[in-house]
Design goal:
Four Helix Bundle (Hemerythrin (Met), subunit A); about 140 residues; mainly alpha
Length: about 140
């Protein structure tokens, strides 16, 4: 995905591959259970972060802003907004604080054009994604 963005004209019409990917994602979301939907949020965050880093490296400010905005929205409106603070106890409160921190750091990365801040957020989110995936493999989660 990153390499393709380097060779695509800046304002090119969506490619057939991009349309196919968007359609495939819609199909995944439509057929996904709640656990899979959260997994898709984590995947979307990682894709947006990688895209933002690539855009930063190539000097594409517009793409960087779009990708970081997408990453921020995934964390804030997807992961953070759907925490159940009453049922999740201290873990949910800790995640709420972590997600808030990630949103702040991504916003700062956007303003300062700092790839290291994006990488920091990826390092913070990646273990949560891995843990989420491992939960899906337990018999309790498959009920």
């Amino acid at each position: 995905m990153f390499a393709a963005s380097l060779f695509t004209p800046r304002r090119a019409a969506p490619s057939h591959a991009a349309a196919y990917q968007a359609n495939a994602l819609e199909i995944q979301v439509a057929g996904a259970d709640a656990h899979r939907l959260v997994g898709l949020l984590f995947e979307g965050f990682e894709q947006a972060a990688v895209e933002a880093q690539g855009a930063l490296a190539s000097g594409d400010t517009e793409l960087k802003c779009r990708a970081l905005t997408r990453a921020i929205r995934i964390v804030d409106e997807g992961l953070r907004a759907n925490l159940d603070l009453s049922a999740g106890g201290s873990l949910a409160r800790d995640l709420l604080e972590l997600y808030g921190y990630v949103v702040q750091r991504l916003s700062l990365a956007n303003a300062r054009n700092e790839a290291e801040l994006i990488a920091e957020c990826q390092r913070l989110i990646r273990p949560l994604h891995e843990a989420w995936l491992s939960i899906g493999n337990t018999p309790h989660a498959q009920r």
